[in-house]
Specification:
Helix content is about 70%, strand content about 0%. The chain is mostly helical. The longest helix has 30 residues. Helix 6 runs parallel beside helix 8. It has a domain of about 130 residues: Tetratricopeptide repeat domain (Serine Threonine Protein Phosphatase 5, Tetratricopeptide repeat).
Length: about 280
């Protein structure tokens, strides 16, 4: 994961050696009592665990101790954002969301609020797994990423969020395609058409649109609805003529003595008019 932490938040490690010595020796990830140490010393210990021992769980312990011992200090504020980062790095996503949200609620105008918002979005995005799982997290990731883009448009976090938003959006389209293929394979043509239609109408900017149009040709031909099949082929040919999906659709239509031209008056005809003829009705 790319680490987006501001220079203001991540302190230099030049003095870490002396601080660690006072904390009980370098190189040890054993959690030591910290009640007698300053907030800065505890903070540096937490940083050390992240940087050297690569132990996010231990780091979170030290950052949370700052909140407990020095709740109103500037170090507590810095430690809270680092808690969120440590939790996320340790793949404790719910805890990462909780810490990030507490930072946003407590310090909404802070320079690191944008990063906290980004971490919150990442905690959803990085849980998006294989396409076959429930897509609730994908919707939440999209919403959280959109908030970063809209609220902090000129930041590096917005730029990264735009890329992740597109990937998550594509992921949702992939889910529709998976279900559509399932129905199509089992001869449930009307149900499959409904899924492919969602991709064409709602996810037209994703990578799945060419296949969705080809599958519509296949499903409509199976139902004997040749006007719709030809219109789907016409849209596919106009926008994705170099795609292998167009070659497949063209072969299916030609095998029935049909052409890839818009016919009849259906939802696909409306799409054809809007996308190809520019007639937004």
């Amino acid at each position: 994961m790319v680490r987006f932490v501001s220079s203001k938040t991540l302190l230099a490690m030049a003095l870490a050696g002396s601080v660690l010595a006072s904390c009980g020796g370098s190189g040890s990830s054993e959690r030591i009592p910290v009640d007698s140490f300053t907030a800065e010393e505890i903070y540096r210990r937490g940083e050390y665990e992240l940087e050297n021992n690569r132990d996010p769980d231990a780091a979170v312990y030290y950052f949370s101790e700052i909140e407990r011992l020095y709740p109103y200090s500037q170090w507590a504020k810095r430690a809270l954002i680092m808690q969120a980062y440590g939790y996320h790095r340790d793949k404790q996503y719910e805890e990462a969301r909780g810490a990030a949200q507490r930072f946003i609620d407590t310090y909404p105008g802070d320079d690191d609020a944008a990063y906290a918002k980004y971490l919150l979005a990442l905690s959803y995005y990085d849980q998006i797994d294989e396409i076959g799982r429930d897509q609730g997290l994908t919707f939440q990731a999209l919403q959280a990423l959109r908030e970063v883009i809209e609220e902090y448009p000129d930041t590096e976090y917005a730029r990264s969020s735009i890329l992740k938003f597109d990937l998550a959006f594509d992921h949702l389209a992939g889910k529709e395609m998976e279900i559509g293929r399932y129905y199509l394979k089992r001869g449930h043509y009307a149900a499959s058409i409904n899924r492919f239609r969602v991709v064409v109408e709602d996810f037209q900017t994703t990578t799945h649109t060419p296949e969705a149009l080809m599958r519509l040709v296949e499903a409509y031909l199976a139902l004997g609805l040749t006007d719709e099949a030809q219109t789907a082929g016409a849209i596919l040919g106009y926008n994705f003529q170099s795609s292998p999906f167009y070659q497949d659709a063209y072969a299916q239509l030609r095998g029935r003595g049909l052409t890839a031209t818009a016919q009849g008056n259906s939802w696909l005809t409306n799409v054809y008019r809007q996308v190809i003829q520019g007639k937004w009705l």
